[in-house]
């Protein structure tokens, strides 16, 4: 995983909701009319309440539909929903509907040249690309953060890790055809988005910028400059914001923008996340409903949402909103399924953990085993944080987790495909771009403190200027080495102490001398 920009979000117990104009999600704006979310009881029932709130932001109204529900709970068991019990006391969720039809496109665009920059992680296209791809990944100081004193070791350490991990990674990529399909799929999404924008009378060009492989973000920026783009919408292809995905890409953009006079003068805005958009939720729900119908008894299928994990320190220490946004996203999808009278039990777990630190729980592999132990026989996997097929879906879910599920007693396995170029999804992304146009070149919010968000909609330079002072007050999300009393620091400091003790014991035993012998704990050797 990777790191990057840091969010500061309100605690789950705060009364917050999300209103939005298309590109701007007011994650912590407060409604005076919000009803408390019902507390889930350990009964086999569904509880729900709903109401509508129409909010006007500037001159562009955005309809927000807030719905409350509880997940199905099996008698005598904890809820299959993996969220903590106090999640049921969270404020109501808000579904953002499109307002693209209300945007005065002609007056906003005029003679400007509009561009859209899609940001994604990137992936090796051949087996020979695997090791250099991994080097780029681990050479990112937001992936492995070293103390200032040791930052000269960043690239040597990245080289060492990439060489060590490359053989195993190559096996994974070989099993899915010899490389990642991410570039091909993202290029197809970019072309589909361009066509959709033109159909909506927005003659925009769409570019793809990958963080760790071709086409690199730097390459996309050079093409944007050659094309003379004057208005740019930056759209990370991650539905939920995380300092490990969208944040890392935006930090790279920061460094690029600050060094280029053309980019400094180019008007642009960023869409930080879009998991609440109605089109996205509808597209995901359509795919889930379609896959459920392939089971012999659809109503008995457990819907298994699997999201890419992040170290828990990102959330608890650095304020990453990823976990909260992911849980809210799952709830919104289940709300939509419930409207269609699909009330299957569901759970959310996190996959792809690496390294010694603790990651978001529950883990996907452990949850699959636990579900099998509880007698679940039908499981539908939903890759909730991925909009494109790549190694985490094609190999980790389709091969590793499917095999684990069958070994754990689950008899029927299904998997919802990634969204790819699903028409409803692409059309909604186009609407999100259109709705962001009024904010190109301007900070979209004046009351930053009220929003409690460190990544408001606005230019990259303004974003970072707005929260750099606060970001420095936050601990780094994960560090390779850190002294102090943070959770990650305790882990590494403890390991260092254990290693030192082991070294001393070995020296004492092999030499027969040392303070343990002098204190009489070990016999002196004559």
From TrEMBL:
Annotated function: Catalyzes the ferrous insertion into protoporphyrin IX.
Protein family according to the UniProt entry: Belongs to the ferrochelatase family.
Pfam family name, one: Ferrochelatase
Gene3D superfamilies: 3.40.50.1400
Alphabetically ordered keywords of this record: Chloroplast, Heme biosynthesis, Iron, Lyase, Plastid, Porphyrin biosynthesis
Catalytic activity: heme b + 2 H(+) = protoporphyrin IX + Fe(2+)
Protein name per UniProt: Ferrochelatase
Associated pathway: Porphyrin-containing compound metabolism; protoheme biosynthesis; protoheme from protoporphyrin-IX: step 1/1
Spans traversing the lipid bilayer: none
GO biological process: heme biosynthetic process
Record-listed E.C. numbers: 4.98.1.1
One GO cellular component term noted in the UniProt record for this chain: mitochondrion
Organism: Linum trigynum
Any GO MF annotation of the entry: ferrochelatase activity
Domain of life (superkingdom): Eukaryota
């Amino acid at each position: 995983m990777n790191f990057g920009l840091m969010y500061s979000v309100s605690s789950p117990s705060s009364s917050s909701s999300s209103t939005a104009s298309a590109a701007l999600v007011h994650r912590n704006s407060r409604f005076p009319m919000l009803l408390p979310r019902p507390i889930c009881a350990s009964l086999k029932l569904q509880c729900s309440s709903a109401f509508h709130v129409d909010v006007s932001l500037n001159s562009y109204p955005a309809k927000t539909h807030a719905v409350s529900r509880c997940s199905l709970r099996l008698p005598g068991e904890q809820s299959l929903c993996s969220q903590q019990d106090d999640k049921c006391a969270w404020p109501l969720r808000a579904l953002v509907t499109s307002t693209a039809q209300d945007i005065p496109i002609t007056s906003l665009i005029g003679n400007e040249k509009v561009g859209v920059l899609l940001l994604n992680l990137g992936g090796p296209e051949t087996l020979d690309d695997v090791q250099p791809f991994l080097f780029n990944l681990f050479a990112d100081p937001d992936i492995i953060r070293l103390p200032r004193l040791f930052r000269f070791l960043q690239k040597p350490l990245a080289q060492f890790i990439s060489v060590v991990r490359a053989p195993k990674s190559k096996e994974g990529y070989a099993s899915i055809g010899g490389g990642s399909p991410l570039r091909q799929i993202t290029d197809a999404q970019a072309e589909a988005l361009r066509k959709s924008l033109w159909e909506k009378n927005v003659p925009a060009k769409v570019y793809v910028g990958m963080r760790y492989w071709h086409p690199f973000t730097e390459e996309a920026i050079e093409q944007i400059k050659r094309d003379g783009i004057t208005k740019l919408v930056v759209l990370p292809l991650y539905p939920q914001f995380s300092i490990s995905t969208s944040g890392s890409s935006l930090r790279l953009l920061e460094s690029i923008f600050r060094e280029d006079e053309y980019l400094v003068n180019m008007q642009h805005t960023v869409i930080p996340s879009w998991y609440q958009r109605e089109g996205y939720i509808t597209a995901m729900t359509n795919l889930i409903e379609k896959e459920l119908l392939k089971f012999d008894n659809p109503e008995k299928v457990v819907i298994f949402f699997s999201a890419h994990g992040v170290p828990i320190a990102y959330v608890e220490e650095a304020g990453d909103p990823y976990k909260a946004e992911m849980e809210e996203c799952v709830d919104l999808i289940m709300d939509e399924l419930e409207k269609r009278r699909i009330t299957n039990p569901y759970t959310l777990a996190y996959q792809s953990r690496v390294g010694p630190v603790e990651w978001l729980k529950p883990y996907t592999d452990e949850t699959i085993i636990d579900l099998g132990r509880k007698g679940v026989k039908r499981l539908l996997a939903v890759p909730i944080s991925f909009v494109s097929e790549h190694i985490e879906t094609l190999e980790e879910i389709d091969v590793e987790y499917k095999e684990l599920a069958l070994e754990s007693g689950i008899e029927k396995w299904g998997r919802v495909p990634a969204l790819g170029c699903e028409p409803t999804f692409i059309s909604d992304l186009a609407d999100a771009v259109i709705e962001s146009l009024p904010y190109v070149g301007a900070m979209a919010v004046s009351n930053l403190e009220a929003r409690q968000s460190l990544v408001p909609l606005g230019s990259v330079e303004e974003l970072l200027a707005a929260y750099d002072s606060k970001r420095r007050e936050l601990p780094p999300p994960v560090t390779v080495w850190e002294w102090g009393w943070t959770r990650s620091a305790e882990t590494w400091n403890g390991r260092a102490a254990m290693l030192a003790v082991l070294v001393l014991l070995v020296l004492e035993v092999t030499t027969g001398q040392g303070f343990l012998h002098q204190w009489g704990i070990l016999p002196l050797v004559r």
